[in-house]
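Consider this one:
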Amino acid sequence: MENLLEQIIIYGAVVIFLLGVVLVYIRKLRRESRIVEKKIQLAKEEGLHEPVSLHPVVDPNSCIQSGACVRACPEHDILGIRNGKATVINASQCVGHGACFHACPTQAISLFIGTEKRGVDLPHVNHTFETNVKGMFIAGEMGGMGLIRNAVEQGKQAVQNLSKGINSKSNMQFDLIIIGAGPAGISATLEAKRLKLKTLTLEQDTLGGTVYTFPRAKVVMTSPMDLPLFGKVKLYETSKPELLDLWNDVLKKNEIKINEKHKVNKIMRNEQGFCVECNNGEEYTSQRVLLAIGRRGTPRKLNVPGEDLPKVAYRLLEPELISDNKIIVVGGGDSAIESALLLADTNDVTLSYRKETFSRLKPKNREKLEEAIKSKSLDVILNSNVTAIDEEFVHLKIAGQEEVLTLANQLVYIFAGGELPTEFLRNAGIEITTKFGEAILKHA
């Protein structure tokens, strides 16, 4: 009888202990859910909850709350756990690296482009990266996937796919012409060399493409990449010079030349392939063409008087050489914020943004911006639009105010994004469609 009583007490204690553990766990989940709820509410108030481009979508029926997606994301507070399921918090800050997609053990996450209300223009590309124009391929940011690692992988895969149809007896000058020497273009060029394809790479600007225009101190990678003819590149906190030096070294070792300052005006289809016409009058023929020109295309302008003055620029190349100037930086994205912060170290900088809040900033940039505003090292004017630029001043119209604000000024940097080279693509015969909430990366 005593043994039975002891067993009952022991089992009872175990049950009470287990119930306590369960209650603590449930309370922990509820507390975490409330925290995520508050983050979602704040994101909505700051305009960060709605996606602007590529973003994760969670299938609640498949999610098992492993938290792998949250841990895998190198950004902060893009995803969180609410009521036992993964959920999106700051969709507009997603940069499309796909780490959450690959980390999910139950394949509950897909990457979508656009939303039901907000469409994103994308060229037609199939699973091999070929467009509707047979023999013409697209890789990298222009196809919808951002980040250097993704662009590098796409450039490599696109060349592997297009190489299968190369005719060794063709009388074309080249097997492949690659247009663009950014991450996708460089990777494609290296893979083409590995496959022994006769290749020509054309770049309208300089090696690195969009990466070259990043401010010098910008971190441009968040995860490793597999670079053809080199191998695994494990650079996480990487500056622009380090990455450009790496690319230059790999190209030099493999005796590859990038034809810089060669802007392509037109791509014409012929019986055996393509004729590519450059702005310097040169023409080249090729069996295949790979477009790796990114989505920015031509910098978007403000279309205001004085925008063509020499003091106006659309990229910041050497901020350390600029000092003791009164500068206006226009824009509200990461490039604008990073440039303004770099310039503010040695200049009098004013940041002008047309909206009421910053809605697309990486967490680190947001923190640095708040610190700069608090320390008064950077002046920020929201709800403002540049109306005119002249030799000595910049004129701003602030919402709700009748008078135009006039600021003394010596340099203007405009970061208003870029315009998808739609006309160039359509002239080449490529179909462009607007994607409204369509999955571009999902599990089979």
User: Anything to note?
Assistant: The mean pLDDT is 84. Residues 335 and 415 are 7 Å apart (CA to CA).
